[in-house]
Amino acid sequence: MTNLLKPRLPMSAQRNYSFMVSGGGTGGHIFPALAIADALKKRYPNAAIHFVGALGRMEMEKVPQHGYKITGLPISGLNRQQLVKNLSFPIKIVKSITICRFLLKDKKPDMVIGTGGFASGPLLWQAQLSGIPTLIQEQNSYPGITNKLLGKKAKAICVAYDKLERWFPAKNIIKTGNPIRESVLQPLPEQPAARAQFGLAADKPTILVLGGSLGARAINQAIHAQLPALLANDAQILWQCGKLYEKEYAPLSNSQISVKPFVTDMNAAYAAADIIISRAGAGTLSELAVVGKPTIVVPSPNVAEDHQTHNARAYADKGAAILLPETNLGELATIAQRLLHNHDESIQLANNLKSLARPNATVSIVDQIERLLK
Questions:
Q1: Same domain for 195 and 148
Q2: What tens digit of pLDDT does each residue of 203-257 get?
Q3: pTM of the predicted model as reported, rounded to 2 decimal places
Q4: Structural domain span for residue 52
Q5: In a 3-state reduction of DSSP, which class is residue 250?
Q6: What are the residues whose beta carbons fall under 8 Å from the beta carbon of 76, sequence distance 6 or more?
């Protein structure tokens, strides 16, 4: 009788599915992959999930930290600056394809999921050749070369932007949005307490500066050069300068400036801010849309396919952010001060940004995986 009263999982959740997930090189590919894996585990508790990444890249550390096993491939992206370094590229490709072929035979996945980056290429290509269904999650408004090639035979391409029919079969595109960290979906803490957490005054207008975990040299230099103008009218700054620039900028911390190499509690940082200055990575923009604060985006010009500029323009065209190219960073303080004091403009930007939020993106992606499994 006791067993009859226990809640029963649906048959789909009881089945022992096997999934392989690949995507790496940068956090923009790794964190969506981890979010999808976590959501798959919730829906299919008995599922086996195995990651594939690139040796020496950050996924080899981040994925095991999240409790998943990963196989590293001896692969790297093409070096566009020093072409001579590409001489070993064909050998790396052949070795990686061979490893993936054996992995697929061993793991026998029901589906292979790719989130972009060169590490996902050999695995998804071999899966497609073997007749194993593949799903791609494309974070950017301008796809990278790996996803462009693989998208032609993928069963579904989950995207966050419009007008990707130029690169993928229209019938297989599903607009789900980008996976977002669970922590960002939680309610933000109270603003005064959040500011106090970073040693800032509870009642002063606050600018949050985000340059990524390693830091953005151009943004850091602009902030440093324009500090007096940024701090005008009693403003204060919470400045994530990046680990590479900690020694250079951390000594600037005082009662009006809180400099951190890396911010671990992003919810508190978002809560503390009145306006945000940020890079334009796809995952970051998706998080910022959920947060809904007036944002100045400064795309990095040093990424493949210049995808950050494409991402930023997609938001700016909808009045959801102010696009400021690195070449115009001299205007940063003027724009920041304007947003702090022009409440109508700030409210409009914030509302437009919130309208683009897709907080249920990860669940929607797993819904597509379930549809394909059936």
A1: no
A2: 999 999 998 777 899 999 999 999 999 999 999 999 999 988 999 999 999 999 9
A3: 0.83
A4: 13-179+359-373
A5: helix
A6: 54, 89, 92, 118
